[in-house]
Amino acid sequence: MLPLTVTEVMRASSDLAIGFMRQDEIVAPVAICGLMPGQNLYVAPDGRWLGSYVPASLRSYPFALVAGPEGERVVCFDEESGLLSMNSGEPFFDDDHKPVGRFAQVVDFFTQLERDRQATRTYCDLIDRQGLFSDWQMKVDAGQGIQEVTGLLRVDEVALNNLSDEAFLQCRHAGILPLIYAHLLSTNRLSELSRLSQVQAQLAGQQPQTRLEDVFALPGADDLEFNFD
Asked: What's the rounded Cα separation, in Å, for the pair 116 and 122?
């Protein structure tokens, strides 16, 4: 599972199946990328992404936004990524210690991402208070038998359709209906997990005639930007 924000859900829903997870009474949307722990069917053996939309949590690497000792948000860098150099490359700060160049874009990216996460939490809380979340007992054909996936929530369409006119108008005025509908439409992408299971099995077989370019038109690393566009 990969975390998503409400802005991302609108774009990711055409490419990824989207569910919700509850942790410490907080519900958040997630992209479903595999059928078992430690598995991501959207990552090819050579590390390339097999989908068309790359979640922000991946695009931000090797940077991350974490809570500091006093609760402040701090942009951090994975020093073990092999991408940090003290001798060459682009600087993070100018002579006045202000973010510069690509790192300034990273800071702006995380500022927008944090704002979007807060909005996502508010939206999901409204959906939860309307009693629209239900357990999602998912069964997907993984090519080698039916795989059950548990621990996810989905929007209950019956509960949604049974909302009173007043409650439905509250949802509309709160702006949560696009998130709900994008999630519901994305469930059609579950079949993609079955197809990717078969693709991964083919690629793992290391058949000489099988090339990634013959399976998908893949985005290159240079195509990834620090924005939501």
From this structure: 10
Are β-strands 26-32 and 2-3 bridged in parallel, bridged antiparallel, or unpaired?
Answer: antiparallel
> Could you tell me the pLDDT band of residue 175, with boundaries at 50, 70 and 90?
very high
Q: Cα(2)–Cα(28) distance, rounded to whole angstroms? A: 10
Dump pLDDT digits (tens) for 107-125. 999 999 999 999 999 999 9
Cα–Cα–Cα angle for 126, 130, 136, rounded to 5 degrees:
95
Instruction: Kindly report, residue by residue over 24-74, the tens digit of the pLDDT.
Output: 889 999 999 988 778 899 998 888 898 889 999 898 889 988 888 887 888
Q: Could you state, in order of their start, the residue ranges of all structural domains in the chain? A: 2-220
**Which residues have a Cβ under 8 Å from the Cβ of 118 and sit 6 or more positions away?**
none
* CB neighbourhood size of 33 (10 A): 21
| Amino acid symbol at 115 | R
Tokens 């997990």, residue? 193
| Residues 20 and 152: beta-carbon distance below 8 Å | yes
C-beta separation of 41 from 196 below 8 A? yes
152-173: b (≥16 Cβ within 10 Å) or e: bbbbeeeebeeeeeeeeeebee
- The C-alpha R_g of the chain, in whole angstroms, comes to 20
